[in-house]
UniProtKB/TrEMBL annotation:
Residues 1-28 are annotated as: Disordered. It comes from the Eukaryota. SUPFAM superfamilies: Winged helix' DNA-binding domain. It comes from Oikopleura dioica. This is Oidioi.mRNA.OKI2018_I69.PAR.g9767.t1.cds.
Length: 374
């Protein structure tokens, strides 16, 4: 997973960090915090870190400003690639949400979700998929707090990528849509990449639902980065393999599609799905068909078509066998459908014949039957 983004606009969102958040803010703490943040935004990294430390010194008890200061220190150290310092500030951050006995304070749901957000970004950097799954599931168990939409978006996006890697396409579609809405609400540029992931999941789930029918997504349909994905979706829906491959290779759309590592990772699966759908439609009318004909229609070589056929047969998508000597696909003949026979009356007609035969055999065994020449 990619797109590590520890942006700061979540601090402008109104959140309730603790049950005492309605009390009057400490003016000195607030001023010191924004002084530190101003130093960070002007590029004075060391000075900003020292100023955030001053916030922690001024705060007598663990509270909102200290949590924000620790979160900013974690972000600053991350962006500065000071990973040891980042881990240290990430740990003081975790402890600020723990009870005296060292357990997580479940009353601090907002802060716990923000910590999970940061952990997700660090685990993404390490490509620790096992921990990402743990963090996503853990986030679902936290029912308290009002997290910033950016935090919720990052968690949902993590879930969408996890579900997609597990080929749970419907769940991925749901999570990506929720992530997109959260990023859109937060005004985050991540909404564009997440919308592309939504279109990707939509195609992989073989859904007939147009993601741009939703009120939230409709305004972005004509964006340059998005239009490449919508064109890809249209080619997918019409089984236009040549069009699909042209869009992927087109320099105008290449960066929007193949420039994203996550999308690039799944394009091959999507192309396989498009080819499979085209293949099944092509062979339905035939008892036998040349592999060369299929390869020509699907714009692939004979090796690729054979590999695709083997997969389709193994997954029971088609009921056929391959004649490798003559390079033919032979459809297996099926037994008559008994349900269909009953519906058309043939089964009842056969049953009547059987009943008539039984009656003849019965009368032939009777003594009087011989008298009448049976």
């Amino acid at each position: 997973m990619s797109d590590i983004d520890m942006s700061d606009n979540d601090d402008e969102y109104q959140m309730e960090y603790t049950s005492e958040s309605d009390s009057e803010p400490d003016v000195d703490l607030e001023n010191q915090y924004y002084t530190a943040k101003g130093l960070k935004e002007s590029g004075e990294i060391d000075e900003s870190l020292a100023a955030f430390d001053r916030v922690l010194e001024l705060e007598e008890e663990k509270g909102e400003w200290g949590f924000k200061a620790l979160k900013q220190k974690t972000k600053v150290n991350f962006k500065s690639k000071r990973y040891d310092d980042m881990l240290n500030s990430y740990k003081q951050l975790r402890s600020s949400c723990q009870t005296e006995s060292g357990e997580e304070d479940l009353k601090k749901g907002t802060q716990l979700l923000e910590i999970i957000q940061i952990d997700i970004q660090m685990s993404t950097l390490r490509k620790d998929n096992k921990r990402l799954k743990f963090l996503y599931e853990k986030s679902k168990s936290i029912k308290t707090g009002i997290p910033h939409p950016l935090t919720k978006g990052i968690i949902h996006e993590c879930g969408g990528k996890m579900h997609l890697s597990e080929e749970n396409f419907a769940a991925a579609h749901t999570d990506f849509f929720e992530a997109f809405k959260c990023f859109d609400e937060a005004g985050s540029p991540r909404r564009i990449s997440c919308l592309k992931y939504l279109v990707l999941a939509n195609m992989l789930s073989s859904s007939d639902i147009n993601p741009f029918d939703s009120q939230e997504a409709k305004p972005y349909k004509r964006y340059d980065d998005i239009s490449a994905m919508t064109a890809l979706r249209e080619a997918y829906q019409t089984n236009d393999i040549e069009g699909f491959q042209t869009i992927v290779a087109d320099p105008k759309s290449h960066d929007a599609i193949m420039g994203d590592p996550f999308i690039r990772e799944h394009i091959e699966s999507l192309l396989k799905l498009v080819r499979t759908q085209k293949l099944t439609k092509l062979i339905i009318p035939y008892k036998r068909i040349k592999m060369s004909r299929l390869a020509e229609e699907l714009k692939v070589n004979l090796e690729d078509i054979e590999r695709l056929l083997v997969n389709c047969i193994a997954e029971e998508i088609i009921d056929a066998r391959i004649d490798q000597k003559n390079l033919l696909v032979l459809m297996n003949e099926k037994e008559p459908d008994q349900e269909r026979l009953r519906d058309t009356g043939f089964a009842s007609w056969g049953a009547n014949i059987a009943e008539l035969n039984r009656n003849i055999e019965y009368y032939q065994r009777m003594p009087t039957a011989k008298k009448f020449g049976y």
